[in-house]
Amino acid sequence: MRFCLRCAAEAQVTFPRSARCERYGYRAIFSREPVVAAIPRDEDGRIWLLRRTLHEGAGRWIVPDTPHETAEASEVRAFAPADLPWDEMAFWSTKQALRDALA
Ligand SMILES: [Zn+2]
Questions:
Q1: Do 53 and 16 belong to one domain?
Q2: In terms of CB atoms within 10 Å, which end of the chain has fewer, N or C?
Q3: CA 35 and chain centroid, separation
Q4: Are residue 54 and residue 15 in the same domain, yes or no?
Q5: Model pTM?
Q6: Ligand 1 centroid to 10 CA: how many Å?
Q7: Above 90 in pLDDT, residue 55?
Q8: Is residue 82 within 8 Å of 102, Cβ to Cβ?
Q9: Domain span at 69
Q10: 40 CA to middle of ligand 1, Å?
């Protein structure tokens, strides 16, 4: 990878672990292990999100695997789709996954 996956600008690459684009703050962390996430919803259609406490995206919302508080997550909350905190999501990929799920 030499270029940003979001805007195609030249990325700052730190082999073998990560790439960063300063234009929009995009960052990719490479891993050999596949990453999977689920979007938990309750019977009312609300979506469960988790507010990160540590690491990249601290203070912002992500999709949890299991919706419960941990040392890395200070808050867990269910949102109606119309009330999702779009401007407070930790990662663009979380926004995209939620948009796809709600489409
Ligand atoms: Zn970029």
A1: no
A2: C
A3: 12
A4: no
A5: 0.70
A6: 8
A7: no
A8: no
A9: 47-102
A10: 29
